[in-house]
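Justification of resources, computational component.

The compute hours requested in this renewal are based largely on the per-chain cost of generating structure records like the one below. Each record pairs the submitted sequence with a full C-alpha cell output. That output is archived, and it is also reused by downstream analysis tasks.
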Amino acid sequence: MHEELIEAIKTSITEKDIINTITEKEKLVSILADILCLGKEAIYRRLRGEVRFTFEEVAIISLKLGISIDNIVGIRNKERAVFDLNLMFANDINQNYIARMDEYVNLFRRANKKADSKLICAFNNLPYFFYLHYENLSKFKLFKWAYQIKRLHSLPFREMELTKEAIAYQKMFISESRNIKSSSIILSQDIFTSFIREIKYFHNLNLMSDTDIQSIKDELNELLTEMESLTISGTYNSGMEILLYLSNVDIDASYILLEYSGHSYAHLNLYGISGINSQSYNICQTHNEWINSLKRYSMLITQGGEMQRYNFFQEQRKIINSFSR
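The structure output for this chain reads:
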C-alpha cells in the first residue's frame, strides 16, 4: 500500500507538469513538504517507510493531487467505493462557490493537456456547461439554492450578488470545459420547462420583478440560439467536438464522467448545485454504462436529425416566450 501511494504521487506530479531541474526525489520531497506542512527530513522518513503516512495525510495528499483514495487503500469490493463530497456551504456563498469552481477548473485544465480527454454527460436539468457564462441564469441557480438552504425568504433576486471573482471563475469553467477534446451531452427534453416553472414560482412570491424575468428570458433565448448553433456545427468555438442528444426517456439525475489518459472522474449532481465525485473504477464504469445506455433511448441532433432538432428548438422558444405571471 505504501509503495502504491508513492507511485500514485509520482504519477500525479508528472501529470501536473511540476517539473524543474532538481532531482525527482528532491522534487517529490519539496512538494509533499508544502502539502503536509512538514519538514523535509520528516518527508524523507515517510518515503523510506520508517514512518507511515497517517490516514489524514493520505487524505490531504489525495485532495491536493487528485489521487484516488480507492486505489491507495486498495478497495476492491465492488459494493464499496470512496466519494468526495463536493458540497456548497451556506456560511459564505461566494467564497464556497469559488472554491468549488476552482476544483473543477483545475481538473479540466489537467484533462485538457491530454489528447484523449473525453466528457460524457446526461442532464435532467439545464446543464451548467451551457449557462454559467450568462450572468442572470447562473445567479438564479445560486439564488434558488440560497433561498432553499439559508431560508432567505425575503431576499429579492436583484439583491443577490455574485462577486467579480465568482463571475470570472464561471467564465473560466466554461472556457476550460470547452477545451475537452470530445463532449457528448444527453439532455432531457423538458429542461427549459422545469427552469421556467422555477422562475414562475419565485415571480409569484414577488422575489423577482418583471424586469428580472425579462432579463432571464433574454438570456434563455441567447442560450437557446447558442445551443442550436452548436448542434449545427458540432464544435465549440475552441474547435473541440460537441455532440448533443435528446433523450426519449426520463433522466432521473444528472451524471458526468470525465476521462483522460487512464484516469476517470465520475460526478453525480446532488442538493441543487452540489454533488459527489468518485475516482472509483467501479463507479466510473457504472457511470459510463448508464450514460451510454441512455444514448440508446436518445436522438443525436448534432449535424443530423434536422426536423427533430428544428421542432425541439422551436418548442423551447415557445415555452420561454409564452411565460406570463
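Residues 84-321 form one domain. The chain has 13 helices and eight strands.
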